[in-house]
Each structure stands twice: as C-alpha cells, then as structure tokens.
Amino acid sequence: MSCFRYLSRTSLVLALAMLAGCVMPARHDEQQWAATMPVEPTAPPPTDGSIYHAEQGMELFNDARAHRVGDILTITLVESTQASKKATTNTSKKDSSTISAPSLLGHTLKVGGQTADSSLNGDRSFDGSGDSSQSNQLNGSITVTVAQRLSNGNLLVRGEKLLTINQGQELIRIAGIVRPQDILQDNSVPSTRVADAQIAYTGKGALADSNTQGWLSRFFSSKWMPY
User: 118-155 burial, b if ≥16 CB within 10 A, otherwise e?
Assistant: First the structure.
C-alpha cells in the first residue's frame, strides 16, 4: 500500500512539473543585446619631432557623430502604433425536396392507407462577427553602442537601460541598423529611422507580478484546454 502511495505522489509531482514547464515564458538570447566592445589595434610607436601621432586619434575635420565600432549614440523612442480590424459574416441556406409516391399498374403506392409521398426540408444559418483593436505608444530615449560597421557604411547598434525603483525594475532594450545620414547633429536618431528594430520593454517586481496571470489560470485559458 505504501509503495502505491509513493508512486501516486511521484506521478503527481512529475505531472505538475511538466505542466509548469509548458507555461514558463521563453528566455531571450542575451547575446543579441550585449554591446560589442571594439578591439583596439596596437598603436605604432610615436615618432619624435612629428606634429601628429597616430595613437592620439585627432580628427580635426570630422563631427562628433557616431561612425565607428564602440561609438555611442542616442535613440529617441517615438513609437506609436494603432491597428483595428472588423469582420462580419452572415450565411444562410434553405433546402426543400418533395418526392411523389411511385405508381404501379395505374395505382399509386400507399402505406397504411396514405400516399407514400416523401419530402425533405433543411434550414441552416450562420451569423458571426469579430472586432479587434490595439494601440501602443512608447516615448523616451536610450543611448546605445555601435556594435558593427557594415560594408555599406550602415551601423549595427544595440544597448539596454535598466531602471531600478522601489517597486521593481524596468528594462528597455533596443537593437537595429542605423544609416549615418539619419544621425542628427546632436548624435541622436529617432527610432522610426532604425531598420530591423527590435525594441523590448519589460519589467519585474511587485507591479509586474500583480499584472501577470498565474500559471494555472494561463493553462485553463490556453489552446490545450478543450472547453
């Protein structure tokens, strides 16, 4: 009897563990957000008597906008999206068929004293409608690092900002490709000019937990629930 109880409890624990594993959120790849620090080349030895030294990196006729690996620039978040969709479907169909009783030697076939006529009637209808709308807005700014300079001169940038407050943490991440022509004089670029942008805004703590549905409730609301 004790062995049966042990097997029952073990099966219950394994079932709960598998259920919790199915509803755990997927982890994001942290490497795609990590800033790539440039490898500085070995500087040549200075030459006495020369006005310009290569290791000094003097740029007298160049602006301060980011253009090399390791440079930083500020991305202004001006994201605003709005989408709506509405669908309505109405269908109906009616069928009616009548089959007269056959005749044999001039006499109509009867069953139980009544003519053996038959008829079929069908009436089907469907009425469905759906309405969906979504609106998102994200404003602010985040400073990122140039991780790679592509062959055509475009810059691959990525970075993150972590804000810790009393009730939890707020994390903003962004990655994408920026054209040098789109960088403004103050070394900033709007997020609408970032190609292949990946923007993530997440949080954790007391406020995030209060707005998150429990794992058991998510299971009953998932597609695996047959009802």
Answer: eeeeeeeeeeeeeeeeeeeeeeeebebbbbebeeeebb
